[in-house]
Amino acid sequence: STLPAVAEELLREIKKAFQETSEVPDELLLGLKFIFGPSAVPALDLVDQRSVTRVRAPSGRTLYQVLGSSGKLYTCYSSCHFCTCPAFGFSVLQKSESLLCKHILAVYLSQAMGACQELAVSEEQLTNILLAEEEDEG
Amino acid sequence: LCRGGLAERLCRLQNRERSAISFWRHQCISDDKIPSDKSGVLIVKILEIFEECTIQVAICQQLEQSPAMLSPEDAVINAEEPILKVLFTRETAVHLKSRPQDVIHIYPPWQKLLLQNADVPVIMNTYFSQKVLLSEHSEAREKTYGLTKMLIKKNIISLAQTFRLDDLDDKLHRESSDNQVPCAPQTHNNGDSKQHPSALSAVNDSLLEMVESQGAVGWREVQVRVVIQRVYCLPAREGYRSHTQGSKALGATLVANADPPSVRLCLLVQDAYGMFSEVQLQSLSSTDDIERYCRSWEGKSCCLAGMKILQRTTRGRALGLFSLIDSLWPPVVPVKVPGQSQDSEMMTTNLPPPSFCYILTVQSGEIHVEVDEEEQISNLYQPPAVHGLNEILRSDGCNERCSFWAQVLYRRLQSKQSIPIDQREMLLFVTDSTLQNVVLGIPKVVAVSVTASCVLSMEITEALSAGSRLVFFKDALWGNGRIICVERTVLLLQKPLLCSAAGADLSELTGPVRLDELDSTTQANSICALRGTVVGVNESTAFSWPTCNRCGNGKLELYPQDRELLYCNQCSEVVTTPVLKMQLEVFLSCPSRSQSTVKVKVWHEISMALFALLTMLLFLQTYEVQSVLGKEVGLLNCYVHSVTSHPNCVALEEIVLL
């Protein structure tokens, strides 16, 4: 498959440009729009608002929590592309229309631009975050 | 969307792009021929198409020149032509209706992306694409094909494939580039604005403007430059409730709950217009840093960004906060007048004291305060005015903030055992050279009440229990004849670097400390010295008991396993060398207060090995009252428990000064 490699490279370019100039050039922003479509602007907005937190437990296990525009907190996994938001379930899982949802994209962009907040929690707390999601959907 | 943020920028770019696309498409239709400008046009021939998500991927061959120039026979696949992967959005793909063998002209602006481990370059942003029809023959073919639906293979992308943004080299850098929560504000010290996206706008100098633009688009990026006048800690949660409960709340004890008290680092800042604001920063896990922050931050300028308004409070509702603001009023340098332009010459110091104040807090735990510690102290900064205690005691003020440097002689904690030591209200008896050297009229020692709302660092708490220390009391409250330490008062162990020492004496005390002698003016809850003769002994109060030498627990038990040993259940250990406490109440006749019955509880402590303890207890039982009567008791330091007039009695307790 091509698209993931393209997306990854685009994000890497963004990270490089940001590290070198503290700016993201217009072409890369437009590239984001091209690849990710309607998720691009909302994802950037989440980054502007510093909505992404990396949650880390002492074992090294991590996950991401993104504060959505509705005020709801969504969980994105580190090990694979997964997000607890309904758009992910619909666009990515069901229809395979998108590569990512805006939250996962926001996670990557926050990583690229050093805009992730960090939260250290205990193993138990991390587990609870993961389990809590299951309960909601169950 | 955040004004000046990346999202807003992309929106603008996208809108522009969309207009350009529709204009271009319209132009193509109306012109009905290939635009003549060939520069930058990519000419490709599609070999294979598949779909991934909504993007159409076309494996193409790049052609040197437009095949319209060549005859159909020449349009053969030349193995040496470079292969490209061209991506089209769904919308472009629908417009193009491309199939293998189609030739597409891609007009600029398009983008080329080179992938790390692949040879084939990728072409993106291919909005301005047009299919080129080779001949009439093709047109007919086109129409036929248009009727049959072409099946395009769709690749399903695995979710397991995540993106790795770091190379091995920059993995080290990645950890440090993320902001930390909770975080010592130190990490932002060198004005390292690289940590923030480039979206912050120019620096403003008005807090009011920042506050008034709250909620409007882009207020988050507004930066305000302010001067840090004071740094202190407030107990979290309880902090504001006490002030809204009315004026009685000043100095009221806040009974701590069972949870460990969390403490927030706060700044009192002032802008170029003289307006104050209290900024509540993050919770501190340890109060040890208060002193360090005070020293490095007070007086410096800083930039605040992305503040959230917690409250707009007024003088009537926040007496404590305003007493601190009043101590900083009027400003030491002229301030700007609102309503005038930024560069206006209009500056004044003749303004009424503020009547309202905004309390701000940071968004979601992140520090939006950048303090440049290397910078010079601002002109607007008013360091605490340090006065000698005699000056403070003589001043008329009521609920005024005062600062002084004094030696702590004795500490008395409130007796509720259920409250942990660091949250109890306590009385500190202090003195300085201005009180010690004065002969008449002013007490030699003054009691400073420290309420639970005054946050003390561990350092201070330990220092106060360990020994006599010189402590700097910053912004304590003076009123109604009492000095109290409340919220926003900070106790520091080091002398302030800057202070307007108007006649203050920051030197150490020379010579032994003298207490006032017991006399007719002595009041309860004070300390004094006394001398007199023992005229009686209250035998019923004679008491001795062993205490734990580690924690002072007076309720030792017999060790179950060996009933000859003592056991402390607070330490959960056997006590091998208990401290024997003995107390006795004696009645003294004191010439300095001859009208009263003076009752002093005297006590004694002996540390002993257990066998000696038993011997001592036996010995004590046989002491004789007679041997004590008539004995002269020389200058004894005591704490006055109570003074009653009917009966005329003073009850004291012998104390040891720190």
Automatic annotation (TrEMBL), chain A:
Keywords: Metal-binding, Zinc, Zinc-finger. Residues 74-112 form the SWIM-type domain. One of its GO terms (cellular component) is Shu complex. PROSITE patterns: ZF_SWIM. Pfam families: SWIM (PF04434). The keyword Transferase does not apply. InterPro entries: Znf_SWIM. GO terms for biological process: double-strand break repair via homologous recombination. One of its GO terms (molecular function) is zinc ion binding. This is ZSWM7 protein. It comes from Rhadina sibilatrix.
TrEMBL record, chain B:
Residues 174-198 are annotated as: Disordered. Residues 186-198 have a biased composition (Polar residues). Residues 270-657 form the DUF4503 domain. One of its GO terms (biological process) is regulation of establishment of protein localization to chromosome. GO terms for cellular component: nuclear chromosome; nucleoplasm. It comes from the Eukaryota. Residues 1-113 form the DUF4502 domain. This is SPIDR protein.
